[in-house]
Amino acid sequence: MLDLRWADVAPRRDVARALSPATYGRRPVLTLQTRSPAPAPPRTGQLLLVEDDDELRAVMAEALAADGHAVTQAVGGRDALDALAARAFDLLILDLGLGPGPDGIEVCRRLRGAGADLHVLVLTARDGEAHVVMALEAGADDYVTKPVGVAELRSRVRAVLRRVRPSQPSRELLRHGAIAVDPGARTATVGGATVPLTYSEFEILRALLDAGGRLLSRRELLRAMFGDDGYRDPRAIDVHIHHVREKLARAGGDPDAIATVRGAGYRMRG
């Protein structure tokens, strides 16, 4: 059985776009013909794609590479763990139903057990909510149900990279009682004790603290996590909230600091 030694892995790098240097000299005269700044190009990232269907993997890899992403491919769970132990990635796209060896859920469990906060998007062809819940319980951030549409996959990847690699990360510290969240450093603490959160868990806690006690619906939390709520099941928020509460409690915090408003959403208790 492969042992994932995460101590040998370079920590995930939070990459921010460099700001252009200040312009010196005479200021330009603006006229009606002055062009608007060109839109920023979409962010690209280092992706690990794990899929045992050769044809499907090739189609997905080609589409993602065409968007400018560097795509590393793995056929099975052992290959995935080897790749994760060798280098850092911005996003893991992980099929649940892998062949012999560790399946997708086991890979995710080992990854989270090693303390990694890498964003994990799982692919599942399995019917029923139970398999989706198992993946989220294992630490997955989001999921896509097969057959996977290329347009949907590309949209999901772009949305994730916009959030995990922001162009101008905020440095404002958010607090609620003993809970503190640093958006720029992407750290959360309770009374100074670190709370190890996944990408989705961090974004949920940040959104709740930023709301200052205001109620947030599940769809609002999805938009806070990914920039939109398309293609996603809002009920996945419930699993992430459960994990956040557990981790707050393990760090010595109050899990009831996050209040459930039945049928409406979540908020921080006043």
Brief characterization of the structure:
It is built from eight helices and eleven strands. It has helices at 54-66, 77-86, 104-113, 129-137, 150-164, 199-211, 218-226, 236-250; strands spanning 46-50, 70-74, 91-95, 119-124, 142-145, 174-176, 179-182, 187-190, 193-194, 258-261, 265-268. It is globular.
Q: Can you walk me through this structure?
A:
With 270 residues, the chain is α/β, with parallel strands linked by helices. The protein has 2 domains: 43-164, 3-Layer(aba) Sandwich (Rossmann fold); 174-268, Arc Repressor Mutant, subunit A (Orthogonal Bundle). The protein has 8 helices and 11 strands. The chain has helices spanning 54-66, 77-86, 104-113, 129-137, 150-164, 199-211, 218-226, 236-250, and strands at 46-50, 70-74, 91-95, 119-124, 142-145, 174-176, 179-182, 187-190, 193-194, 258-261, 265-268. The strands form 3 sheets. It has a 5-stranded parallel β-sheet, with helices on both faces. The protein has a 4-stranded antiparallel β-sheet with strand order 6-7-8-9, with helices on one face. Strand 6 (174-176) and strand 7 form a beta hairpin.
